[in-house]
């Protein structure tokens, strides 16, 4: 190797591979390593701007997108840490700037990760813990007004759960997912999510199953945290296609969210309730509307209107992309498709790829009344992806017509050989990993 090659900085992908080797488990819920590393870094988590901490099973990313949109419309600088990324690791780190934030660039992210690596000095630590520490360290280097912080998995033992006094904690809808880590009952999972609740910090809670709400309310009482629950402290409804939000401070009649689906009204309402529950920032009504109208969040019922893959599908067809991967995620995607069918009827094809630890039958059951045409595909470069044959068996058990294809591209091309009286509506779904590969192949990665 020549001198110039030896000096070449590693790519971000190479660096992530190297850092991932520091701990044998990709997921290991334990805050001990995180506390040690943050102490070595002189506690950047204690130097952050006010933090809004968001946990839940579904809707976390969309809720954060609305929060960011509203806060930025109010003229505030907003740092954002979310996971997982779809195409590039940079997507997890958004640095707040006047006039709107931007994803961290490669050089600055590499520098931050290498700083964390040197500080950690080879001790066992997961890649998510390293990335979370890097987010805190990056955010401290750049002035901002607020940090939006998404839980990675669960809450109580998640690497993000090191913020002692958040501005607010938010819990989106809780449902069954990641049972191997969080427990196999809704109440057990709710207990893990409620673990982010901190003393005296307001808790803003989406509509929940009754047993879940009981768990959250009990933890809020233990922490003397005021709770603002959907359907009790605040309400959101759809009236004449508009979002109507109401709490004890009054009513707001706002334009519909840009993100598609009835569930997005609920996510937007949760963001509004969160910002109405705090007193640090004054938010004018115009900022609430601008924020929800302009918010974007990729791979959540996202319409692919142009790109490489669109050109491969049947002419004039619709292609929708959704990263839903559990039963509740399938339910809201199916409900959104039902709304589309009421507006303009089209034959529906669902191209689906899932990870092996997901409940394929529970996910696909949501689409049984909408389509009988399922195409099961692999998720490339994922060792723990569900084989398409196993996914197809789950669809057949539901009475669906199902076939397999070697890739999502091949699945799209296969549809061009069919004779449609009306161009089809195509949903590609089942995994955020699959969604990321779709956006990359289409030439439309998140920006």
From TrEMBL:
PROSITE patterns: FOLYLPOLYGLU_SYNT_1 (PS01011), FOLYLPOLYGLU_SYNT_2 (PS01012). Transmembrane segments: none annotated. Pathway: Cofactor biosynthesis; tetrahydrofolate biosynthesis; 7,8-dihydrofolate from 2-amino-4-hydroxy-6-hydroxymethyl-7,8-dihydropteridine diphosphate and 4-aminobenzoate: step 2/2; Cofactor biosynthesis; tetrahydrofolylpolyglutamate biosynthesis. The keyword Magnesium applies. Residues 317-431 form the Mur ligase C-terminal domain. InterPro entries: Folylpolyglutamate_synth, Folylpolyglutamate_synth_CS, Mur-like_cat_sf, Mur_ligase_C, Mur_ligase_C_dom_sf, Mur_ligase_cen. PANTHER family: DIHYDROFOLATE SYNTHETASE-RELATED, FOLYLPOLYGLUTAMATE SYNTHASE-RELATED. Functions in two distinct reactions of the de novo folate biosynthetic pathway. Catalyzes the addition of a glutamate residue to dihydropteroate (7,8-dihydropteroate or H2Pte) to form dihydrofolate (7,8-dihydrofolate monoglutamate or H2Pte-Glu). Also catalyzes successive additions of L-glutamate to tetrahydrofolate or 10-formyltetrahydrofolate or 5,10-methylenetetrahydrofolate, leading to folylpolyglutamate derivatives. Belongs to the folylpolyglutamate synthase family. This is Dihydrofolate synthase/folylpolyglutamate synthase. It comes from Bradyrhizobium lablabi. The lineage of its organism: Bacteria, Pseudomonadati, Pseudomonadota, Alphaproteobacteria, Hyphomicrobiales.
